[in-house]
């Protein structure tokens, strides 16, 4: 049986129940060319706000290719993120920065915004090193491998934010919540 909970507050409440007594220290990495497209309408401010309810975003980087417009770079900076302009492969740079977070003792949660299965090894390594992982995946085309490799999954689709959670005894159970962003 599938349970549906709606609204932005539902997502915030869901993640806030995952808080420990100490606030989580989050490193957020965004795969810009893969998710910051008009057809996806991803709102980085909403993602940051959801994560702020869960912990403190200590690192917030958006990786872009050399073709990113000046307006996009400015918007990213205005939202409090650090734009990283890559002259070569964005995925490689993001993976390297992600591995630095895996070995950074001041970060205990790694959040990725992507659709790309190329980052599955990064999530696996983060989990091996005791880091908590949150993936914000974008549909259509979100990798099932990523979904199954992360501790918490939030799906961004059709201007809605949905989270998926497995029940303790039934790994196939999904709880879905949505909100307009």
Helix-strand blueprint:
Layout (H helix, E strand, L loop, with lengths): L2 E4 L1 H9 L7 E8 H4 L8 H11 E11 L4 H9 L3 E5 L3 H13 L6 E6 L5 H9 L3 E7 L5 H4 L4 E6 L2 E5 L10 E4 L3
Summarize the entry for a quick read.
The protein is α/β, with parallel strands linked by helices and 181 residues long. It has helices at 8-16, 32-35, 44-54, 70-78, 90-102, 120-128, 144-147; strands spanning 3-6, 24-31, 55-65, 82-86, 109-114, 132-138, 152-157, 160-164, 175-178.
Largest sheet geometry: 7 strands, mixed
Question: What proportion strand?
Answer: 25-35%
Structural class category: alpha/beta
Give helix % range: 25-40%
Describe the structure.
The protein has 181 residues and is α/β, with parallel strands linked by helices. Helix content is 33%, strand content 31%. It contains seven helices and nine strands, in the order E-H-E-H-H-E-H-E-H-E-H-E-H-E-E-E. The chain has helices at residues 8-16, 32-35, 44-54, 70-78, 90-102, 120-128, 144-147; strands spanning 3-6, 24-31, 55-65, 82-86, 109-114, 132-138, 152-157, 160-164, 175-178. The strands form two sheets. Strands 4-3-2-5-6-7-8 form a seven-stranded mixed beta sheet, sandwiched between helices. Strands 1-9 form a two-stranded parallel sheet. Helix 1 (8-16) packs parallel to helix 3. The longest helix is centred in the middle third of the chain and has 13 residues, at 90-102.
Q: What characteristics describe this protein?
A:
two-stranded parallel sheet, globular, single chain, 181 residues, 7 helices, 9 strands, seven-stranded mixed sheet, alpha/beta, disordered C terminus
């Amino acid at each position: 049986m599938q349970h549906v909970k709606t609204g932005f507050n539902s997502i915030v409440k869901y993640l806030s129940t995952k808080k420990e007594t100490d606030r989580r220290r989050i490193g957020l990495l965004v795969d810009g060319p893969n998710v910051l497209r008009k057809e996806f309408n991803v709102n980085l401010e909403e993602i940051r706000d959801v994560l702020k309810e869960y912990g403190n975003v200590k690192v917030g980087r958006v990786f872009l290719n050399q073709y990113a417009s000046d307006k996009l770079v400015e918007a990213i900076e205005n939202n409090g993120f650090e734009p990283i302009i890559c002259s070569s492969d964005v995925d490689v740079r993001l993976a390297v920065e992600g591995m630095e977070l895996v070995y950074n003792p001041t970060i205990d949660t790694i959040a990725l915004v992507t659709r790309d299965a190329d980052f599955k090894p990064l999530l696996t390594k983060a989990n091996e090193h005791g880091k908590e992982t949150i993936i914000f995946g974008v549909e259509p085309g979100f990798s099932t491998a990523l979904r199954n490799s992360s501790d918490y999954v939030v799906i961004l689709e059709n201007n809605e934010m949905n989270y998926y959670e497995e029940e303790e005894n039934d790994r196939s159970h999904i709880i879905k919540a949505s909100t307009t962003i």
